[in-house]
Specification:
By secondary structure, the chain is α+β, with helices and mostly antiparallel strands. It has a single domain, classed as Aminopeptidase (3-Layer(aba) Sandwich), CATH 3.40.630.30. Helix content is about 40%, strand content about 25%. Strands 1, 2, 3, 4, 5, 6, 7, 10, 11 and 12 form a 10-stranded mixed β-sheet that branches. The mean pLDDT is about 90.
Amino acid sequence: MSLLQRFLKNDYTAVMLAPARAEAPHAFGQVTIDPWRYCILLRAVQRVRAISYLHRGLISVDDLATGQTYPTKFDAGSWHFVVFKHGQIVGFIKNRLFTRTVPLDALKTYDSIERLPAAEKAVYGDALIDFIQSSQSTFPQFGESSSWVTLPEKNSASIGMVLVLSTFAFYAFQGHALGVAVSRADNGAAKILTAICGKPLGQDGQVLPAYYDPFYKAQQRVLTFDTRQVSAKFCRDVDQIMGYLSNIDVYYPGRF
């Protein structure tokens, strides 16, 4: 039984939330412009993030916004792949896609790097800028994957795998992309991404080590990826998830 078959057999479903001004890939068959539904779902995502962050001790109840949510400045401009079980969100991942310029302050990766001491920030910031510039010189699209969140669940490992692989399926729909992701160095998302095709960010031929992020209270690693170079081990799963994405509901907050 394939990963997607197990996912469906365990009664998981998913939707996609799109940024307001993004174009809908032709492969998406169930596109709906519904600002009210979009807002309800995005606030639900932000509540799940709040639950996860509170549980991990990253924030306090005083940091929560209206409705017990924890929004971020990156939410409105991101594509969210959201997984449900019996009507309740159990996980999500978000992706950004840039087709022209890549503003550093629009990247969650750079937001993490900004929290480093000055010397480290300069090294990682320069490496990120170099990677973005070299990527755009060879490929027109740049992506970022972030906020891999799952709630405690019997099948959370398989949910996590579907979340990460959905990133590659999503970018394949868009014509592929080179990109970055920042994740805890010791968690499942980083390990899965590395197994699929991720490589640590480097500078001058040297791999940059993981660094301590004071917000996440953990070692973080910046990984780069090229969605055209998925490991053969995962190609079938990505293809199947692409087929699944073509039939899920995609909600837009406004005209595209």
